[in-house]
Amino acid sequence: MSLGSFTSSDSKRRATPLPRPIENMQTFTPDSSIASDVIPSANFGERNKGRLPDMILLHYTGMPDVQGAIAQLCTAGTDVSAHYIVLEDGRIVQCVPEAKRAWHAGVASWAGEDDINSCSIGVEIVNRGHDWGYPEFPLRQIAAVIALCRGIMLRRNVPSQRVLAHSDVAPSRKKDPGEKFPWHSLANSGVGHWVQPAPLVRSEGLRLGATSNEVRGLQQALARYGYGLSITGKYDTTTTEVVTAFQRHFRPAKVDGVADHSTLVTLQALLASLPAETAATAAT
Q1: In whole angstroms, what is the distance from residue 7 CA to residue 217 CA?
Q2: Set 124, 136, 179, 277: catalytic member
Q3: Contacts of 193 (CB under 8 A, 6+ apart)
Q4: pTM above 0.90, yes or no
Q5: What is the enclosing helix (H) or strand (E) of 272?
Q6: 271, 279 contact by CB (below 8 A)
Q7: How much helix, strand and coil, in percent to the nearest 5, is found in the chain?
């Protein structure tokens, strides 16, 4: 998909007007050459201990309109922000320089790290989300997300398997960007880690309340991939939430928190397809 095909004069006439930058906020030169606007956010800080970002975290805005979402992400006192906002028409707004720590992940963890804001670039994708009807993501918007992420991956040396969903790092709190987000399209363009999900078949699966070595093995596999959960052998609420998050990202045809045959096979295929050095680290 080409961004050039989405910049006709007709689409510009229909473009959603953006809020004016907040007065007295210092502007900056965008890191991405395809960012069309800079609307500086008041909400950011320094990355802790000089941590360089090597993760991209994708969100949806989850609000009824663009203007409200931008105001939420840029106004002092809201305590939330993101580096980028990708509009439905494909325009990209940068709000925080990539070198700075935006406040987008909240309480979150991945692969043993719990300061996700310090290690990531946050990308908010304009979409009303599950609470407001959850529309499909337009093709021009996905094309822009792909182009933006490819640039970040090159600039920041981000591995494909560290392009993640907000729900991956905060499965008990978040659903975004959700099961409608086309991760397979991103992967086809070199963004994100993906395997073809195993087909759905009739199976009992592992579910809430189960206690067994099979549950322990599932928990160990999810933890090896990066999800944060304790290895207890009991299929508890946390395990259900993590499996649900995994399904939203990697097996979106059925999102129910039950580790059925399709979920288990897809998880094993993802682990098997990790780069050798990542797989070795995950196994330790």
Answers
A1: 49
A2: 124
A3: 160, 161, 163, 187, 270, 273, 274
A4: yes
A5: helix 261-272
A6: yes
A7: 35, 10, 50
The label of the residue with tokens 């800079």 reads: 38
Q: Which residues contact 83 (CB under 8 A, 6 or more apart)?
A: 94, 95, 96, 97, 98, 102, 104, 121, 122, 123
Q: Give, to the nearest 10 degrees, the angle between helix 213-225 and helix 261-272.
A: 40
φ and ψ at residue 206, rounded to 5 degrees = -95, 140
Cβ count near 131 (within 10 Å):
10
User: What domains appear along the chain, each with residue ranges and CATH number?
Assistant: 3-188 (3.40.80.10), 213-283 (1.10.101.10)
What gap in Å lies between CA 124 and CA 141, rounded to an integer?
Answer: 11
| Cβ count within 10 A of residue 14 | 8
Structure tokens at 226: 């990066």
Q: Which two tokens stand for residue 221?
A: 């596999």
Gap between the Cα atoms of 45 and 189, Å rounded? 32
How far is CA 215 from its chain centroid? 26
Torsion of CA 244, 250, 254, 256, to 10 degrees: -10
pLDDT along the chain (284 residues), means of 10: 38 66 83 96 96 98 96 96 98 98 98 98 98 98 98 98 98 98 98 98 94 98 98 98 98 98 98 79 52
Burial state string for 219-246 with b = 16 or more CB within 10 A and e = fewer than 16: bebbbbbbbbbeeebbbbebbbbbbbbb
277 in active site? no
